[in-house]
Specification:
The protein is of the alpha+beta class. The protein has 2 domains: 85 residues, DNA polymerase, domain 1 (Orthogonal Bundle); 138 residues, Cytidine Deaminase, domain 2 (3-Layer(aba) Sandwich), CATH 3.40.140.10. Helix content is 50%, strand content 14%. It contains 10 helices and 5 strands. A 5-stranded mixed beta sheet has the order 2-1-3-4-5, with helices on both faces. A hairpin with a 5-residue loop joins strand 1 and strand 2. Helix 2 packs across helix 3, helix 2 packs across helix 6 and helix 9 crosses helix 10. It is elongated.
């Protein structure tokens, strides 16, 4: 006779132990494989997802790479189907929203690490370039952020007028640009520098200050125009141009 307290299906006891471990010890007690396994079970709660989790980690090598993988890439892993993929991507979406809302209202300079975490999570692993703008008020508190362009990010593909209109719409007094390099490189291109200079000049006419331009590369690395001294050089060049105009 089946005992009343026995697991109702294969793996249920194991998954309950994982849940209990999280409640007692937190995420730090989990291996990456266990994190992936538990996420997969949200999509197929009656399936044993241990082997699929291990296979995904072996194929993509890291937890971030698994979470960043596309539907087509994940479906190549035996045991992972559309419902599992929905669970992985939904968790990613929740994390992005959480990180975005966490920085809203905070002073930009005092929240630089949190801003970097948000940008890394939202841009890391993307196969194409994305330009995000962080809008700040007069005291440099973060109002909101917005993706303003996707694809090749340069002065020819960005519509500065639309970006400035977005800044005026939220009553921003300052901006921070951020875009990713799918290659993983942190080195700014000539196009990156030209775009920064163009937007700094346009913002100056409307008393909107461009504070920084961030480049998200591989892993958790971020390049800052301001920290590397490039913003100071651009400000100097633009001051000379503005001075010659009036």
């Amino acid at each position: 006779m089946k005992q009343e307290n026995s697991p109702r299906h294969k793996g249920e006891g194991h998954r309950q132990r994982l849940r209990d471990k999280f409640l007692q010890l937190g995420i730090e007690a989990f291996t990456d494989s266990e994190v992936i396994e538990l996420l997969l079970t949200f999509g197929t709660p009656r399936s044993d997802c241990k082997d699929a989790a291990r296979a995904a980690l072996a194929h993509f090598h890291t937890l971030p790479a698994v979470l960043d993988a596309s539907q087509q890439e994940l479906q190549q892993i035996k045991g992972i189907g559309p419902k599992n993929i929905f669970a992985l991507h939904f968790v990613q979406g929740v994390a992005r929203r959480y990180l975005k809302q966490r920085i809203t209202g905070k002073h930009y300079l005092r929240s630089a690490r949190e801003v970097a975490d948000y940008l890394i999570h939202s841009m890391r692993g993307l196969p194409h370039e994305v330009l995000t703008v962080i809008f700040l008020d007069a005291s440099h508190a973060i109002i909101t952020s917005e993706v303003v362009a996707e694809g090749t990010v340069n002065v020819n593909t960005i519509y500065p007028r639309e970006l400035i209109k977005a800044a005026l719409r939220v009553n921003a007094s300052a901006l921070v640009l951020a875009h990713n390099h799918p290659s993983g490189s942190l080195t700014p291109s000539t196009q990156d520098t030209n775009l920064t200079k163009t937007l700094y000049l346009l913002g100056s006419f409307l008393q909107i200050t461009l504070l920084d331009h961030l480049i998200v590369g591989a892993g958790d690395k971020v390049f800052s125009f301001a920290e590397e001294g490039l913003m100071a050089a651009i400000r100097s060049q633009c001051s000379n141009i503005l001075g010659s105009l009036g």
